[in-house]
C-alpha cells in the first residue's frame, strides 16, 4: 500500500476551500519528524503561514499566488541552526555551522522532513506541492516571517484537499538512475532518447496543459544559464560562509 501511494504522487496546485485544523497539522508534522536526521541534529524548522496577508505576500514573492492563497495549509520548510546555537549555549559552547558540510546536513534534513510530511499528507487524502519559488526572494521571505541568523527557507510546501486530480508524470526508467558497482554514462545515449519519447507522448495526451516537449529539451532550457544568483550572498548574511 505504501509503495503504491508513493508511485501515485502528482503535484496538486488547485485546492478546495478547506483549511487544515491545528490538530491535523500537528499530526502530520509529528509523523514527519520521525524522518532520519544526520547525527540527530534535526536542523530544520517549519513556519506555518496562516495570516492571509502574509500568505498573499508569500505568494507574490514566490510567484505562486494561487497556491499560497488557496491551499489548506502553507508551510515554509527551513534549514535551522539557530536552535542548535541555543542548545550549545546550554552547554557553554559556541557551535560552528558555517561550513559547507553543515549546509548539506541541514538541507538534507529538511528534504527528509518535507518528504515525510508530504507522504503523511497524501496518506490522509490530501494533495501537496513543493514551492521552490520561495528562493526567488529568499531574503524578503526571511524578513516576512522573521527568520533569524542560521535559518533560511529551502522551499514552501502547500497541502490541501485536491480540487482536481493530475496525471502521474512518468519518471526516468530505473536503469537510468541505478548504476551497479560503477557509474555508467554510456547508457544515456539510448535511455534518454527513449525517455524523451515517453515524455512527449505524456505531454501531448494529458488532460490539461498539453504541449509538445521532451524531457531533455526542457532540462537543457532550464539549466542553460545560472539561476537565483543571489542565494550565496543571502546565505552568507545568514551565517553560512562555506568554510
Automatic annotation (TrEMBL):
Q: Which UniProt keywords apply?
A: Flavoprotein, FMN, NADP, Oxidoreductase
Q: Which CDD domains does the record associate with it?
A: NfsA-like
* The keyword NADP is annotated on this UniProt entry: yes
Please name the InterPro entries in this protein's record: Flavin_OxRdtase_Frp, Nitroreductase, Nitroreductase-like
Source domain of life: Bacteria
Q: Which residues form the Nitroreductase domain?
A: 7-160
Decide whether keyword ATP-binding is in the record: no
Cross-referenced PANTHER family = NADPH-DEPENDENT OXIDOREDUCTASE, OXYGEN-INSENSITIVE NADPH NITROREDUCTASE
Q: Which family does it belong to?
A: Belongs to the flavin oxidoreductase frp family.
Q: What is this protein called?
A: Oxygen-insensitive NADPH nitroreductase
Amino acid at each position: 500500500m505504501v509503495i503504491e501511494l508513493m508511485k501515485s504522487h502528482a503535484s496538486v496546485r488547485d485546492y478546495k476551500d478547506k483549511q487544515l485544523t491545528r490538530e491535523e497539522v500537528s499530526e502530520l508534522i509529528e509523523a514527519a519528524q520521525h524522518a532520519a536526521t544526520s547525527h540527530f541534529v534535526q536542523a530544520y524548522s517549519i513556519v506555518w503561514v496562516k495570516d492571509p496577508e502574509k500568505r498573499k505576500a508569500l505568494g507574490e514573492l514566490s510567484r505562486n499566488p494561487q497556491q499560497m492563497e488557496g491551499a489548506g495549509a502553507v508551510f515554509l520548510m527551513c534549514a535551522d541552526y539557530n536552535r542548535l546555537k541555543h542548545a550549545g549555549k546550554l552547554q557553554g559552547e559556541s557551535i560552528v555551522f558555517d561550513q559547507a558540510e553543515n549546509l548539506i546536513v541541514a538541507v538534507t534534513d529538511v528534504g527528509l522532513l518535507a518528504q515525510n510530511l508530504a507522504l503523511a499528507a497524501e496518506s490522509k487524502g490530501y494533495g501537496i506541492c513543493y514551492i521552490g519559488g520561495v528562493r526567488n526572494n529568499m531574503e524578503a521571505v526571511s524578513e516576512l516571517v522573521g527568520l533569524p541568523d542560521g535559518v533560511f527557507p529551502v522551499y514552501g510546501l502547500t497541502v490541501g484537499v485536491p480540487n482536481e486530480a493530475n496525471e502521474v508524470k512518468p519518471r526516468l526508467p530505473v536503469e537510468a538512475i541505478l548504476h551497479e558497482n560503477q557509474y555508467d554514462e554510456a547508457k544515456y545515449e539510448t535511455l534518454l532518447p527513449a525517455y524523451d519519447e515517453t515524455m512527449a507522448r505524456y505531454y501531448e495526451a494529458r488532460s490539461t496543459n498539453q504541449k509538445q516537449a521532451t524531457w531533455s529539451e526542457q532540462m537543457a532550457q532550464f539549466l542553460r544559464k545560472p539561476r537565483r544568483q543571489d542565494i550565496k550572498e543571502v546565505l552568507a548574511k545568514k551565517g553560512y560562509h562555506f568554510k
